[in-house]
Amino acid sequence: xxxxxxxxxxxxxxxxxxxxxxxxxxxxxxxxxxxxxxxxxxxxxxxxxxxxxxxxxxxxxxxxxxxxxxxxxxxxxxxxxxxxxxxxxxxxxxxxxxxxxxxxxxxxxxxxxxxxxxxxxxxxxxxxxxxxxxxxxxxxxxxxxxxxxxxxxxxxxxxxxxxxxxxxxxxxxxxxxxxxxxxxxxxxxxxxxxxxxxxxxxxxxxxxxxxxxxxxxxxxxxxxxxxxxxxxxxxxxxxxxxxxxxxxxxxxxxxxxxxxxxxxxxxxxxxxxxxxxxxxxxxxxxxxxxxxxxxxxxxxxxxxxxxxxxxxxxxxxxxxxxxxxxxxxxxxxxxxxxxxxxxxxxxxxxxxxxxxxxxxxxxxxxxxxxxxxxxxxxxxxxxxxx
Length: 386
Ligand SMILES: [Zn+2]
Ligand SMILES: [Zn+2]
Ligand SMILES: [Zn+2]
What we know:
One of its GO terms (biological process) is negative regulation of gene expression, epigenetic. With 386 residues, the chain is of the alpha+beta class. The protein has helices at residues 44-48, 64-72, 105-123, 129-140, 150-161, 165-173, 180-191, 195-210, 221-234, 242-251, 257-278, 336-339, 343-354, 361-365, 375-385; strands at 7-12, 17-22, 31-35, 39-42, 93-94, 101-102, 236-240, 284-289, 297-298, 304-307, 315-319, 330-331.
C-alpha cells in the first residue's frame, strides 16, 4: 500500500519513541515527503499588525508589491516583473459571517469542514469566550511569538467536528509523551511566572467556548496543560511572504547579466529598507502541527531539513545529505548558529527547550568542550547571562 514512500515510521523501545527511517537511497536535495498540518494558525500579534494571510493555509493575501510598500513604508515603491507575484486576488474569498479571509474557495471550504463551522459564530461576536481567550493570550504573549492559543481552539474544534472525535483526540495526543512534571515545567517556561493563573483562565474560557461532555478530559486543567505543551513544544514555525516568493521567482528568470545585476541591487535595497522599518518582522508567521514531521528526531548532524516551497503551510522535508536505505531521517531542532556551538551549549539549549539530553552521533563522539572551536562564544554567553 505504501510502496512508493521513501520513508517508514518505526518505533524504538529505547526511549527514543517514534522515528522515521529511509526505505531507499535518498539523494541530497530530494524531497522525502510533503505534508499539510493537522492544524495551523497565524500568530495573534502578527495578524493584528496587518501581516495579511489566508486564515487556513497562511498564504499571503497582499501582492508582492503591496507587501514591499507596507514593509518599507514607501507607497511609491514599484516592482518590476509583477507577473512573478503568486498572489491572485480574484480567487480570494471571505467568510460572510466572521470576515475571515481566504486565498481561495478551496481553503474556505476545507477550513469550514475541518474546524471553522464550530468556531465561526464565536469569532464574529466580540464578547464570546473565544475572543476573550485571544485577549488573554495577546496580553500575556508578546512578540516574538511562538504560538497562538487559537491553535488550541482549532484543535478542539477539529476533534469535535471529526467523524470519530476520540480517534482524532488520540492523534493529537500522539505528539506528546511528557510526564506531567515535564509539562508543568514547560508551561511555566512558556507563560512565565503567572503561568498557573493564565492556565486557569485559558481553561475556563476553553470550557465556556467548546465544552463537550464526551470529551471531558480535554477540558480538565491537565488537558489544558497538555495542549499548551503541545502547541508550544511541537508546533513547527511557518513563515510566508509574497515578496519573498516574488524574489525567489525573479531570481530564477533567465535575464541578461546587466539586468540581473540591477535586479539584485533593487532587491538588496528593498530588504535593507524593510529591515530599517520593521527589523526582522517581515513574514506572515504562525505555527502548525505536522504528524509525519513530528516523528523526526533531532540530531546535531541532521540529514534533512524543513522547507515551505509553496508559500503556504505545506511542509516539505528535504534531504540535506545522501541518505542510505535503513538510515534514520533526522532534522535539527536548533538553528544553524546554535548547531555550531559546543556540545555543552547544544545540550543545554535542547534540555531547556525540548527537555531531552541529546545522544546523537555528534554528541556521543564529541570530545570535551575545550577542543570545541566555539568555546570562546560559550564563555561570553555565560558572562552575558550572569
Ligand atoms: Zn489558503
Ligand atoms: Zn466564519
Ligand atoms: Zn546532539
